[in-house]
Amino acid sequence: MYSRFGAGFAAKSGTRQLMDDLGEVARGGAGLINLGGGNPASIPALEARFEAAWSAVPTVDWLRLLGGYDAPQGHQPFLEALAQTLREGLGWPLSARNFLVTGGSQASFFLLFNLFGGTTATGQRKQILLPQAPEYIGYAQSGIEPAMLVSHPALIERVSPHRFKYRPDFAAITVDERFGALCVSRPCNPTGNVLSDDEIARLRALTRLAGVPLIVDCAYGEPFPGISFVPTSLVWDEDLVLCLSLSKLGLPGVRTGLVVASEPVIEVLTSLHAMLALSVNPVGSRLALELMRSNDLLALGREIIAPHYAAHSATALALCDELLAGTDYLIHLSQGAIFLWLWFPSLPVSVQVLYEALKGRGVLVIPGHHFGPGLAAPWPHLAQCLRISYAQPAATLRAGLTVLAQTLRDLG
Hints:
Layout: H1 4-7, H2 14-26, E1 33-34, H3 44-56, H4 59-66, H5 76-90, E2 99-102, H6 105-116, E3 118-119, E4 125-133, E5 149-153, E6 155-160, E7 163-167, E8 179-185, H7 197-210, E9 214-217, E10 240-245, E11 257-260, H8 263-277, H9 283-294, H10 297-323, E12 330-332, E13 339-343, H11 351-360, E14 363-364, E15 366-367, E16 385-389, H12 394-411
Parallel strand pairs: 1-14, 4-5, 4-8, 7-12, 8-9, 9-10
Antiparallel strand pairs: 2-11, 3-4, 6-7, 10-11, 12-13, 13-16, 15-16
Helix pairs in contact: 3-9, 5-9, 10-12
């Protein structure tokens, strides 16, 4: 008999479904068009920087790194260089003691959610508040204790006949003694929504008043890779906890996540991390260190990564408007990240049925009902939505969206 925690994984989760689909693609799934996964795009100019950085590291350094344990906090030269980059580039008052390197963002969220959520030493139960749904699929099942996440449906603002935007329902958001932290993704995975500076300021005011941290998942945003198409600013202070990643910089395989937090929080997280993993694989940290020595890490986002995705977003939106013409569809404003979030208000079946029909025709997407972690009850709106990645070449997007449009018409 499994524990209550273990039993929660007996049924296949949305994260497992996503990764199984990606694994099928990686194994060379014949004829599959992958519009579902979160793999970053192939950007030749960026890959040339990676290749040069990899080649610049002497073989003896790689052997030394791989032949021993690193510190549980992470590769110290990388942490020092990153602190200097963010001090000089953004004016953030950071030292190497403000960082923890993890085995990817999923590991970061597991550590953070169970640090701030759960039963306290005094017996009080703390939850993690996700201020608006839809929200990142990977937050689900991150809590050791049950029902750790609480979320609220976003308000829906129709911007034009085929565009809409989510906004936090601040009237529903109360930060009280029930909560140990708030967490938001910015830009949002899955929707491409970017909380405005004013919305972030309102959330920070609520968390300061309650004396809890605001966790900002910056995997797609500032300070890197900076895949945001609207002006934003973010000033770090000790009330914030930031989760960064090398994945969307273009290095998902190295599984390198970063937590930026106050020194006391990093100290506790480092002890947790030492128990779970001893130390993290240093390859991503060493490669990123070389990138910082030879390039401006922040400029890579501004000059190469963000422009690439902005162009692909425009292409994907134009293709949707062309191929979905005549169907009842809306698309969330594409403000950042690498996804489009499609809403079909008149969908005659659940989006899971649509997902299965598309997979049967060789197209992978992610059904929207998986993106409601923490909701008290199923939100029917999510069963009309799906996420697609536009990181693929234009020809792949056209082929996949053509199948999507025809499947929608076939379903009536």
